[in-house]
C-alpha cells in the first residue's frame, strides 16, 4: 500500500505540474472543438449508399432454387449525417423478405422481383426525414425447378503450357461428372459444364487443385467445385522399325523393298512409349507414284502414326526395290 501511495503521488505531481496543466487544458479544448466540429458536420445533409439484405422466403420443400436472387440491394439515401450514421452502423435495416409464391412463374421456372416492391419495403424502414434516391439492381431474378436434374461431364477450360522438355499428358477431374438442376428446356441444352478458366505456365510437376465450376444462369450445379489433377510427362525421342507396305499394286505384281523395314524416329512421353507398337505406324510405297516416276530407288511415305506421338519422321526416304510378276 505504501508503494502504491508513492506511485500515485508521482503521477499526480507529474499531471498537475505547471507544464502538464497547460497541456491538459490544450487537450480539453482540442477535444471540445473536435466535438463541436463533428456535431456541425453530422448536422449537414449527405447522400450515402447503404446495403440492405434480401431473403427469399416460403420456398416449397419440393422446389430447388437453381439460381438465388442477389443477397443484398444497394440503396441511396439522403438525410442528415446523424441519421445516416444510425442507418450505417446501427444495424437498422431488417432483411427485405419476398414470398416465393408471389413471384414464381411455374411454367418458366423463373421469378422476377420488381424494383417497386423493393422500394416499398425499404421506404417503410426509413425515417420520415430521409429521402430514398434509388434502389439497385432494377430487379431481382431467381430460377427454380421441381427436382428436374441430370448428370453431365466436367470439361477443362483454360490454358496450360509446359517447359520445353515436358508435355501435358492429360487432365483429370474428381468427380468427373456433376448433377445439374434446371428447367427441362435448359437441361436439354446442357451437354457439359466447364471449370472457371485455369491457366498455368511452365508446368513440370503434377498438380492437384480444387477449382470452381463456371456459373450458368438458371442452373444449380452440385457440387460446384471439383478436384483438378494435371499430369505432365517427360518428352523422350525414340525409334521403332516399321515394315514397308506396297499399295495400289496391280493384280499379279509384287513389290519387294531392300530393306523391308525402315526406322521411324519420333517424340513421345516417357510413360507412353511402352504402349506404342510397330503396327500402329503405316509406311508405304505407292505403286501409282512409282509407275508414273520410274527411278532406281522408290520413295517411302509415312502415312499414319499413333495419336500419342509427335514429330514422327523417317530416317531414310528412299530404298532399293524389285518388281516381280507372279
UniProtKB/TrEMBL annotation:
The chain crosses the membrane at residues 23-42. Keywords: Membrane, Transmembrane, Transmembrane helix. It comes from the Bacteria. PANTHER family: CDAA REGULATORY PROTEIN CDAR. This is YbbR-like domain-containing protein. The lineage of its organism: Bacteria, Pseudomonadati, Bacteroidota, Bacteroidia, Bacteroidales.
Amino acid at each position: 500500500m505504501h508503494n502504491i501511495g508513492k506511485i500515485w503521488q508521482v503521477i499526480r505531481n507529474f499531471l498537475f505540474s505547471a507544464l502538464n496543466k497547460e497541456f491538459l487544458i490544450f487537450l480539453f479544448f482540442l477535444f471540445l472543438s473536435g466535438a463541436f466540429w463533428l456535431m456541425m458536420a453530422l448536422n449537414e445533409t449527405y447522400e450515402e449508399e447503404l446495403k440492405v439484405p434480401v431473403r427469399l422466403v416460403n420456398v416449397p420443400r419440393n422446389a430447388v432454387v437453381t439460381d438465388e436472387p442477389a443477397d443484398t440491394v444497394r440503396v441511396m439515401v439522403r438525410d442528415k449525417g446523424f441519421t445516416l450514421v444510425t442507418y450505417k452502423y446501427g444495424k437498422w435495416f431488417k432483411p427485405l423478405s419476398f414470398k416465393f409464391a408471389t413471384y414464381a412463374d411455374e411454367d418458366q421456372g423463373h421469378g422476377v422481383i420488381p424494383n417497386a416492391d423493393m422500394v416499398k419495403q425499404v421506404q417503410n424502414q426509413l425515417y420520415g426525414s430521409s429521402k430514398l434516391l434509388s434502389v439497385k439492381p432494377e430487379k431481382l431474378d431467381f430460377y427454380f425447378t421441381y427436382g428436374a436434374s441430370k448428370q453431365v461431364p466436367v470439361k477443362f477450360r483454360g490454358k496450360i503450357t509446359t517447359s520445353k522438355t515436358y508435355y501435358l499428358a492429360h487432365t483429370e477431374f474428381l468427380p468427373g461428372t456433376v448433377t445439374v438442376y434446371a428447367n427441362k428446356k435448359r437441361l436439354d441444352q446442357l451437354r457439359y459444364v466447364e471449370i472457371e478458366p485455369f491457366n498455368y505456365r511452365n508446368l513440370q510437376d503434377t498438380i492437384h487443385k480444387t477449382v470452381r465450376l463456371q456459373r450458368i444462369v438458371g442452373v444449380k450445379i452440385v457440387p460446384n467445385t471439383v478436384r483438378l489433377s494435371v499430369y505432365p510427362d517427360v518428352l523422350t525421342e525414340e525409334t521403332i522399325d516399321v515394315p514397308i507396305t506396297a499399295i495400289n499394286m496391280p493384280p499379279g505384281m509384287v513389290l519387294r523393298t531392300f530393306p523391308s523395314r525402315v526406322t521411324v524416329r519420333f517424340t513421345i512421353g516417357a510413360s507412353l512409349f511402352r504402349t506404342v507398337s510397330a503396327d500402329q505406324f503405316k509406311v508405304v510405297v505407292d505403286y501409282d507414284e512409282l509407275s508414273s516416276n520410274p527411278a532406281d530407288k522408290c520413295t517411302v511415305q509415312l502415312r499414319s502414326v499413333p495419336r500419342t506421338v509427335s514429330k514422327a519422321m523417317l530416317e531414310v526416304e528412299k530404298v532399293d526395290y524389285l518388281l516381280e510378276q507372279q
